[in-house]
From TrEMBL, chains A, B:
DNA-binding region, residue range(s): 127-226
Annotated source species: Streptoalloteichus tenebrarius (strain ATCC 17920 / DSM 40477 / JCM 4838 / CBS 697.72 / NBRC 16177 / NCIMB 11028 / NRRL B-12390 / A12253. 1 / ISP 5477) (Streptomyces tenebrarius)
Annotated protein name in UniProt: Two-component system, OmpR family, KDP operon response regulator KdpE
Entry-annotated residues carrying 4-aspartylphosphate: D52
Response regulatory domain segment(s): 3-116
Pfam families per the UniProt record, alphabetical: Response_reg, Trans_reg_C
Keywords per UniProt: DNA-binding, Phosphoprotein
Keyword Endoplasmic reticulum: no
SUPFAM superfamilies in alphabetical order: CheY-like
Domain OmpR/PhoB-type: 127-226
Taxonomic placement: Bacteria, Bacillati, Actinomycetota, Actinomycetes, Pseudonocardiales
DNA-binding among keywords: yes
InterPro entries attached to this UniProt entry: CheY-like_superfamily, OmpR/PhoB-type_DNA-bd, Sig_transdc_resp-reg_receiver, WalR-like, WH-like_DNA-bd_sf
PROSITE patterns associated with the record: OMPR_PHOB, RESPONSE_REGULATORY
DNA sequence: ATCCGCGTTGACGGGTTCTTGACGGCCGGG
DNA sequence: CCCGGCCGTCAAGAACCCGTCAACGCGGAT
């Protein structure tokens, strides 16, 4: 879950942000002055900071500098000042974005999504690794490990395994599997599935004839069981 | 030198930006419609894109999507529309920032600096030097050492190696590799990869015919193993 | 003008992967 | 009891992909 630190001394702004962010599945931390903001950031390790420049105790740029000393977390500045010089100052101090009050909640949320997307896609993985008792699937690296050694899969084998793993625990209809791996024209070639599921089991299951993770649901489809 | 691609159909805006950017030491590319923008981005490899949404040929979000298909270069959107929905749409399509016209040049430049700073520091963090049993890659210095002597790589060879090393351990699809090194138009020229991977292996692998670090995954792509 | 480095393109051999057919086991219904 | 689906297994030829070598053209440097 994405963690947002909201720093503002106006209670109604904090409340509005907290409600809107929480409703969209964000975890929200708050602080109402600069000192508390630095403390909260250090302890809570937010994924993004929304920072009002008009704080009671310290200048906003000092908060930015304080954060930038040790973290590259995205900072979105809120401010009532529309003056261009203020924006330049904040951005050059290390802020990532600058939104003037009064702001549209939709826009702020969109800018927040953009900031989070940037930082997570460049930092890389969101933990796409699935483990079972006998093998491990790494979706991002497209790797499969069994007993700490890599198992080589062909493109088709990987395609099937990926669809099943992404629907972990759920039943995937044969038609759906065929369409996603071979394309819509092959929706009835159920024989392909039999051949490739057998290959996958031979490579991954401890006892291929008695599968424990790549399960057949007769007449319906297949299911991956972690 | 930082390279900026300016996309706008209004000549006076392009001129103003070109002058201001050049005066601050940026290298400036320009395009006046969406098609030219995608072409210029593929060929010129800018470090940041300034994109006007009101282009004559295609919708601005399509240009964003076209870029995001193969690059994570920062995109700063310019637009005369102040409507919140437009901003949300552009940001969610993959833009990094949104500035409404008329804009202050100081502010735009500050946002541009912020965007470039972000992309260079986040890309540069982590270890810029990657070592394997037989050679060492220095991403920052663009150098490769083998047995303590420098190995000379051509620009294309380096481009491939860099993409692979930045995705260390992960499989990189042939399409992705081609798009990032040669540009989106070359996404199917898999033969290029075979030729260049062979050259890289000849230069870097102790036993080129039995590669241990530059691995082929048939039908899928290539992988760098440290 | 000539040479050299580099990117591009074609041809070919060898290996892997996909497709397809055949066969047998299991199960429920006629 | 027999039969028709459905599934798993095996094997073989076709299709595809990869690595390698070599030739060509272009541009910059000598």
């Amino acid at each position: 879950m994405t963690k947002v630190l909201v720093v503002d001394d106006e209670p109604q702004i904090v409340r509005a942000l907290r409600i809107n962010l929480a409703a969209r599945g964000y975890q929200v931390l708050t602080a109402h002055d600069g000192a508390a903001a630095l403390k909260a950031a250090a302890e809570g390790r937010p994924d993004v900071v929304v920072l009002d420049l008009g704080l009671p105790d310290v200048d906003g740029t000092e908060v930015i500098a304080g954060l930038r000393g040790w973290t590259t977390v995205p900072i979105i500045v809120l401010s009532a000042r529309t003056d261009s010089a203020d924006k330049v100052e904040a951005l050059d101090a290390g802020a990532d974005d600058y939104v003037t009050k009064p702001f549209g909640m939709d826009e702020l949320l969109a800018r927040l999504r953009a900031a989070v997307r940037r930082s997570t896609t460049s930092a890389g993985d969101g933990e796409p690794v699935v483990k079972t008792a006998s093998f491990t699937v790494d979706l991002a690296a497209k790797k499969v490990l069994r007993d700490d050694t890599e198992v080589h899969l062909t493109p088709t084998e990987w395609g099937i395994l990926e669809v099943l793993v992404r629907n972990s625990g759920r039943l995937v209809a044969q038609k759906q599997l065929l369409k996603e791996v071979w394309g819509p024209a092959y929706a009835t070639e159920t024989h392909y599935l039999r051949v490739y599921l057998a290959q996958l089991r031979r490579k991954l299951e401890p006892e291929p004839s008695r599968p424990r993770h790549l399960i057949t649901e007769p007449g319906m489809g297949y299911r991956f069981e972690p």
